[in-house]
Amino acid sequence: EQRKIKDALFGISPDSIESHEKFIKKKSLPFPLISDPERIICKAYGVLGEKSILGKTLFAITERSTFIIDEEGKLSHILEKVSPGKHLDELLEVL
User: Fold this and answer.
1) Element housing 56 (H / E)
2) Which of the two ends of the chain, N or C, has the fewest CB atoms closer than 10 A to its terminal CB?
3) How do residues 14-47 score in pLDDT, each as one tens digit?
4) Are strands 56-62 and 11-13 parallel, antiparallel or unpaired?
């Protein structure tokens, strides 16, 4: 049987669990962060960006994005390359 999660909010990044714990505490985040160090989830959602170091292009960074999944489990909205300062307003507009 598939378990449905309603109204869940969480963040995902390749940062370590320890890094997430510090960030959650520092920013007083009211939601959990998922550690994806092998970038499996980041790759699946297409949020890996390019970073150039000494002329060599790497796929090393994640682009801040928000994915809204509806009650049916379907992707309903994608907000790409979000700016933290403007993101809440954009998110509220979509919801």
Assistant:
1) strand 56-62
2) N
3) 899 999 999 899 988 888 999 999 989 988 988 8
4) unpaired
**For the chain, how far is it from start to end, CA to CA, in angstroms?**
28
Q: What is the distance between the alpha carbons of residues 34 and 25, in angstroms, rounded to a whole number?
A: 15
State which amino acid sits at residue 17.
Answer: I
Residue type, 94: V
Place of tokens 């109204």: 7
Which token pair is 10?
């969480």
Cβ contact 33:20 at 8 Å: yes
- Contacts (Cβ under 8 Å, ≥6 apart) of 3: none
Residue-wise over 54-66: b if at least 16 C-beta within 10 A, else e? eeeeeeeebebee
